[in-house]
Structure formats: structure tokens, C-alpha cells
């Protein structure tokens, strides 16, 4: 009996040991609760970058005439994303940005609100509420549709003063772009307000790189060109004006100091602007600049091990294509038809900036755009020979430009020479690729195949452990018809429990009786006749 008992105990001990080892292995192999959550997210948006833009950009890579060399971001394509807005296939940048920022489709021209014009929390706001550092980068003015969609809630995307006020009060840690002069000082002095809020203002590359500030505001305007916008990458003076990749690196350096992690949105804004102008040089060179910024983000993420990087276009633009009606047969179109694109040293905007007032240097302008004005002679426009036929058309366009030197006429020459065609000067409704880098613990599955633009936002939120809907409930409580509430001149007064709360729309401070209270970047908004305040403000009224 004793021997049997000992034998039983020995067997059971062995079973327990084996089970323990088995469970340990399972535990080691299977992700624990929350293990797929990352600390940081970098969301890059190449505004208006159509698939053909990336295709042509490959041909501009050094020594890549056959198009076999790839862009850095090519290896990270996981699927396609639809670009529809709430009511149609061709979106404005405002609802496109809103879809990526909030996970809600919306109406053209509006920011950070749903089709019912109700404010919805953004990824940036949700990350900030969780204690993360946040940043925005754009090569356009910072109040432009995409950056604004991540940080403002407004019915009219053109209402820059309101958008700027909300963004300033949101306490964003890093904002790099331009646009301070786009709002009249009497409406809102952006620079002085930013200084008062503790931002260090940097105006050029050297100042940006030198800065050690935890709150950084880049106002790269007026210093580089007459348009008061950041230059196209090929036009910029590299010693003075930062590239998109350099701004991305700086923002990561600042934001990464936060122990709770960070969220950063980076927009290559002027790909879209070049596409509107049908300027192939601007499109492809800014696409290459965006590729460098994406690489900067991924290089950081690989070293960090706790960061996701997502890049996706908000919409197509221009209907750009390789091949035009003037191409006389596929066999007559070798890779070399795109070679003229490599001769440009300026975009059309940059080349036209060289034009003297007396227009005496049109040849210089042409050469800057990659066109040799002496390289074409009149020829038979009816010729069946590709080169003869095309050179005749190019010569005709050069003659027109010399008489009427405009950006539009300059662009037509290059597009004719390189057989690049466009269907429109506006947005287009095609699906666009999504590029994704994740650490091993994060599955790419949610963005494989064809996805809605709102799915991208949901994926980023899930990866950061954020609930956009819960944050919406905390940040935007409708108090319009609340007992004791009155609204006048964009100011809410709320009497409750013997206390009086006063808060102005677009502000993140409130007055409780006569005491000013900081709401830590949580902004009140007044939209469509409804007043929304953060729950933290209402908590001040509790007994």
C-alpha cells in the first residue's frame, strides 16, 4: 500500500511538472493581455499622392531607368484604402483627414465632426488625454485641412482664425510648418500667443536643429519664397529650410522624451498642390521627399521596438498617367521617354520665381525646369515618327511660353515632352495604397486587403490602446440645453450647485466663479448652434 501510494505520488508529481512546463511554454508563446499595444504611433499622409505619382517617382531614382529600383516605402504596402467621403467617391481633404483622425466619414469642407456636425475625438486628442506627447508636421500652413482635422473641430475648413485658436489652445507639444501670417494679427496674433503658451519659435533649419525646447513651434514662412509657404523639396535651400525628413526626425527626438509615448502626424502637403497644378516635377520630387520622411520614421521604429508607422494618401489627385494621346504606339515608348523629368532643378513654381520683371531670361526659366530652349526645331506636326512629332509640339509650346511665360504654359512643355497626361486639376476617387510598419507583436491583418479610410484610424487607435468613442464622451459634452446654461457671444455661462462656470469657445481655460482654471488642452467648441465642453470642466461644478 505504501509502495502504491509512493508510486502514485511520483506519477502525479511528474504530471504536475509536465503540466507546469507546458503552461509555461504556452504563456511564453501566447500574447498576454495588452501585449499588442504599442507606446508610439507615427501617421504619415502624402496628400494627393496617386499611385502613378509613386510609379513615376521610381524612375527618377538614380540609375533607375528601367524602374526596377524601389522606393523605400514600397516594401511596406499591405493593402488598399478607399477614399470616399460620407456622400460620394471624390473627397475634399477635410473629410479625408477627418476619417483618418476620428474614424468617422464626414462632409466636404468640415473638420473633426461627423455628418450631423457633432464633434468627434481625434487620435491626437485621445493620445494626449492618455498622457502622451503629440505633434503635427505639414509642408502647408498648419491650419490646412489635414493637420487641422487632427486637432480642430470646425464647420468651415477656411475659417483659419478659429482653427488656429483651437490648435494653439490644445497644447500640442511640437508643431512644425508654416502659416502664421495667414491669420490677421487683429483676429489672432499666432506667434505672440504661441510664445505666451511657452513655445520656442523656430524660423529656419539651424534654429530647429539647435532647439532643446520641450514645446516647439516651427514657423517656416516668409523666409524662403514669395508664397509664404514651405518650398517644394527640389526648390528649397537645404542649408536654411528643413526637409520633411529633417522635421520628422526633430519631432521624434522631442516627443520621444515623454515616458508615456507619443503620437505624431506628418503630412507631405505639397504633393497635392503640385498635382492640382499638373506639375509632374513637383509631384514626383515631393513624393521622393515623403519617402525619405517615411524611412526616417521606420528607422526610428525599428530601433525603438514599440512604435507603429502608418502611411496612406488621403485621396488621389489629377488623374496623372504615364502615356498620353500623343504617344504613337506602345513600342515607340521606351523607358527614356521619362528621362526629361530628370533634367529639372526646379518645380514650375521655383523656375517661375527666377523670371525677371522684364521677362528677359525666359531661357533660364526653361532650363531650370529641364527644358533646353534650343533643343527643338520646327517639324512636321503630322509626322508618324514619335520624336519628330513630339518635338514639333514641344517647339510650339516653347514658342507660346516665350510670348506668355506663365507657370501653366511651362508645365505643358514638360508634360508634352515626357508623355505625361492628366485628366483633371482636381481630386480623384481611386483607392490608394496603405504602407505599414509594425513590431512583431502587432498584427498587420486589420489593414490587409481593401479597407475603408476609417479603418486606418481604428487600427491606430487600437494599437495605442485608445477608445475614440470614450474620449469623445469625455471631451465633448453637449450643454446647450442644460439647466442653468446660457450662451452669448461664443461664451457659455453655467450656473450649477451654487457655482458659476464660464468658458469661451475654442479655449482650454475656464472660470469657476472668479478663479481661472486650466483645462490642460481640452478645448470647448461651439458648432452648429451647439456648445460642447469637456467633462473635466463640468466636474468643477460638483458639490
TrEMBL record:
InterPro entries listed in its UniProt record: Alkaline_phosphatase (IPR001952), Alkaline_phosphatase_core_sf (IPR017850)
EC number: 3.1.3.1
CDD domains attached to this UniProt entry: ALP (cd16012)
GO molecular function: alkaline phosphatase activity
Alphabetical list of Pfam families matching this protein: Alk_phosphatase (PF00245)
Tree of life domain: Bacteria
Signal peptide: 1-28
The keyword Phosphoprotein is assigned to this record: yes
Transmembrane domains' residue ranges: none
Entry keyword set: Hydrolase, Phosphoprotein, Signal
Family: Belongs to the alkaline phosphatase family.
The name this protein goes by in its record: Alkaline phosphatase
Source organism per UniProt: Lutispora saccharofermentans
Amino acid at each position: 500500500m505504501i509502495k502504491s501510494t509512493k508510486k502514485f505520488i511520483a506519477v502525479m508529481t511528474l504530471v504536475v511538472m509536465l503540466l507546469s512546463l507546458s503552461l509555461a511554454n504556452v504563456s511564453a508563446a501566447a500574447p498576454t493581455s495588452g501585449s499588442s499595444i504599442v507606446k508610439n504611433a507615427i501617421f504619415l499622409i502624402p496628400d494627393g499622392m496617386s499611385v502613378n505619382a509613386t510609379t513615376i517617382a521610381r524612375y527618377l531614382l538614380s540609375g533607375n531607368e528601367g524602374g526596377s529600383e524601389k522606393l523605400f516605402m514600397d516594401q511596406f504596402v499591405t493593402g488598399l484604402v478607399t477614399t470616399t467621403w460620407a456622400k460620394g467617391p471624390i473627397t475634399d481633404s477635410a473629410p479625408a483627414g477627418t476619417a483618418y483622425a476620428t474614424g468617422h466619414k464626414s462632409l466636404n469642407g468640415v473638420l473633426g465632426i461627423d455628418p450631423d456636425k457633432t464633434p468627434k475625438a481625434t487620435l491626437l486628442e485621445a493620445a494626449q488625454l492618455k498622457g502622451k506627447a503629440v505633434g503635427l508636421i505639414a509642408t502647408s500652413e498648419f491650419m490646412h485641412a489635414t493637420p487641422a482635422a487632427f486637432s480642430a473641430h470646425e464647420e468651415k475648413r477656411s475659417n483659419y482664425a478659429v482653427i488656429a485658436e483651437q490648435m494653439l489652445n490644445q497644447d500640442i507639444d511640437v508643431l512644425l510648418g508654416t502659416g502664421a501670417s495667414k491669420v490677421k494679427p487683429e483676429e489672432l496674433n499666432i506667434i505672440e500667443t504661441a510664445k505666451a503658451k511657452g513655445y520656442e519659435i523656430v524660423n529656419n533649419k539651424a534654429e530647429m536643429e539647435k532647439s532643446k525646447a520641450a514645446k516647439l513651434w516651427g514657423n517656416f514662412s516668409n523666409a524662403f519664397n514669395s508664397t509664404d509657404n514651405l518650398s517644394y523639396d527640389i526648390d528649397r535651400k537645404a542649408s536654411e529650410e528643413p526637409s520633411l525628413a529633417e522635421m520628422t526626425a526633430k519631432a521624434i527626438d522631442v516627443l520621444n522624451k515623454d515616458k508615456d509615448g507619443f503620437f505624431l502626424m506628418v503630412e507631405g502637403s505639397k504633393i497635392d498642390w503640385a498635382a492640382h497644378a499638373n506639375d509632374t516635377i513637383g509631384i514626383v520630387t515631393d513624393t521622393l521627399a515623403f519617402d525619405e520622411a517615411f524611412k526616417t520614421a521606420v528607422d526610428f521604429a525599428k530601433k525603438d521596438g514599440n512604435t507603429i508607422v502608418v502611411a496612406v494618401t488621403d485621396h488621389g489627385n489629377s488623374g496623372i498617367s504615364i502615356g498620353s494621346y500623343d504617344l504613337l504606339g506602345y513600342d515607340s515608348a521606351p523607358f527614356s521617354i521619362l528621362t526629361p523629368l530628370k533634367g529639372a532643378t526646379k518645380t514650375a513654381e521655383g523656375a517661375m520665381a527666377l523670371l525677371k520683371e522684364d521677362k528677359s531670361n525666359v531661357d533660364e526659366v526653361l532650363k531650370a525646369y529641364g527644358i533646353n530652349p534650343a533643343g527643338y526645331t520646327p517639324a512636321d506636326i503630322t509626322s508618324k515618327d514619335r520624336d519628330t512629332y513630339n518635338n514639333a509640339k514641344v517647339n510650339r509650346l516653347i514658342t507660346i511660353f516665350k510670348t506668355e511665360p506663365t507657370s501653366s504654359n511651362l508645365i505643358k512643355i514638360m508634360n508634352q515632352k515626357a508623355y505625361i497626361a492628366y485628366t483633371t486639376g482636381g481630386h480623384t476617387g481611386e483607392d490608394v495604397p496603405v504602407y505599414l510598419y509594425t513590431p512583431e507583436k502587432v498584427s498587420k491583418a486589420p489593414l490587409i486587403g481593401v479597407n475603408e479610410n476609417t479603418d486606418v484610424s481604428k487600427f491606430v487607435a487600437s494599437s495605442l490602446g485608445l477608445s475614440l468613442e470614450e474620449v469623445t464622451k469625455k471631451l465633448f459634452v453637449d450643454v446647450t440645453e442644460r439647466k442653468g446654461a446660457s450662451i452669448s457671444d461664443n461664451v457659455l455661462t453655467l450656473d450649477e450647485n451654487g457655482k458659476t462656470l464660464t468658458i469661451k469657445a475654442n479655449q482650454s481655460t475656464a472660470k469657476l466663479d472668479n478663479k481661472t482654471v486650466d483645462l490642460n488642452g481640452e478645448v470647448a467648441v461651439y458648432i452648429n448652434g451647439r456648445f460642447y465642453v469637456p467633462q473635466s470642466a463640468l466636474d468643477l461644478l460638483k458639490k
